[in-house]
Amino acid sequence: MFLVSSCLAGINCRYDGKNNLNKKVAELVKTGKAIPVCPEVLGGLPTPRDPSEIIIDDQGRKKVITEKGKDLTAEFKLGAEKTLKIAKIVEAKKALLQQRSPSCGSEKIYDGTFSGTLISGRGLTAELLIKNGIKVLTETDLVKNNLIED
């Protein structure tokens, strides 16, 4: 069993109320091979919600800030912790997460300027899962290498 970003399974939970449907991911959920999670919704955020990006504060800590300047770090951390709990319950060894997200991005995230600029980095959930021994994959990995198979 593994986790997948809910938006990749076709659930309308993105910040803009839409999804990032990936038919292969949706099929994995449909056949019971994967559990969809949205850390942002698990953290108590509504859908839709203001766009958010990660910034690094003066002490070097990651903060998640909306485009309007509201600090949502606590909600993003709570969502990451709840996602990890779910992963442990289902004994997930892998997670297939949506790139660029301040929660789920595992290779690239937006730079915090809301300019569309990508930088190397990880979202809060991806980082927590990796620290706890869960392999985080992207939708690109699924398409290129079919890495999601057990």
Automatic annotation (TrEMBL):
Pfam name, any one: 2-thiour_desulf
InterPro entries per UniProt: 2-thiour_desulf (IPR007553)
Protein name per Swiss-Prot or TrEMBL: Uncharacterized conserved protein YbbK, DUF523 family
Lineage, opening ranks: Bacteria, Bacillati, Bacillota, Clostridia, Halanaerobiales
